[in-house]
Amino acid sequence: MADTAHFGAREVLLEDKQALVDGVFRSVAQRYDLMNDLMSFGLHRAWKDALVTAVNPPKNRPFALIDIAGGTGDVASRVIAAGGKGTRAVVCDINPDMLAVGRERAALRGLGEALAFTEANAEALPFPDRSFDAATIAFGIRNVPRIEEALKEAYRVLKIGGRFLCLEFSAVNVPGLDRLYDLYSFNVIPALGRAVVGDAESYRYLVESIRRFPKPQEFAGMMRAAGFARVSYQLMTGGIVALHSGWRL
Ligand code: SAM
């Protein structure tokens, strides 16, 4: 039987998932960051701040970050702002439209030297082994068809002693909040997508894909299987988001 993957609530052929995901991000690229602010009431900023705090870029020595599925470069620019002069980041994303928005924004902010954008698949990163001090992926991993391959690649490109951090939507664990969250996600978010981006379907996919993503314990196990050590995770905002951490030792 052919391999399949989840595309939101649908089961699709594994090799078809990426093209479907690419269609979603092509459609939302121009208004992607605005929609994040609207959908999360600005909370995505606090979640990303927690990620940047964990990355903890040094002030006084060179530091190389790869931000996988980095989209418009939001996380990478925050890491550069938090680090010292020697902090460099590469944003890898499979979608040229997301990267184009990111490049334009980075040029406006004068981040040209510190921030590079590369079109690449998380399942096959175009970098040598042991190139980076840290690897991040924020709200990206659930879109990747072969999650195990992406984890192996993140591990491969990390230096020994490097840290992998993954921010992803998770499962709400507060009674009462879960029903409210479902109501909001399945009704308000697609309507917001229609109003702001002219596309409800893409946002329906994003909501459904969250429900299909492995629970934190299971994802931690997948990280261990990829080779990561000292794997841990913290849940934020009642479990809406999980921040996983693992080290290449
Ligand atoms: N990390 C950014 C952020 O937090 O703002 C963007 C997250 S966005 C929800 C998910 C991103 O994953 C999109 O930019 C999409 O193009 C990218 N993506 C999906 N599949 C990918 C793959 N196989 N390899 C690399 N990037 C991928």
Plain-language structure description:
With 249 residues, the chain is of the alpha/beta class. 46% of the residues lie in helices and 24% in strands. The protein contains nine helices and nine strands. The chain has a seven-stranded mixed β-sheet with strand order 5-4-3-6-7-9-8, with helices on both faces. A two-stranded antiparallel ribbon has the order 1-2. α5 (96-108) links the parallel β4 (87-93) and β5 (115-119). α1 packs across α8.
Name its key features:
single chain, 249 residues, alpha/beta, 7-stranded mixed sheet, two-stranded antiparallel sheet, 9 helices, 9 strands, binds S-adenosylmethionine
Layout of helices and strands:
Elements: E1 4-7, E2 10-13, H1 14-28, H2 32-40, H3 43-55, E3 63-68, H4 74-82, E4 87-93, H5 96-108, E5 115-119, E6 132-138, H6 147-157, E7 158-169, H7 177-197, H8 200-212, H9 216-225, E8 229-236, E9 241-247
Bound molecules: S-adenosylmethionine.
The site of S-adenosylmethionine has 20 residues, from helix 1 and helix 4.
- The helix fraction, in percent, is 40-55%
* Element string (H = helix, E = strand): EEHHHEHEHEEHEHHHEE
Secondary-structure-derived class: alpha/beta
Q: How many β-strands, per DSSP?
A: 9
Instruction: Give the quaternary arrangement of the chains.
Output: single chain
Shape category: globular
Uncertain parts: none
Largest sheet, spatial ordering of strands: 5-4-3-6-7-9-8
How big is the Rg?
17 Å
The overall average pLDDT, rounded, is 93
Number of helices: 9
* Ligands: S-adenosylmethionine
Residues in β-strands, percent: 15-25%
Main β sheet profile? 7 strands, mixed
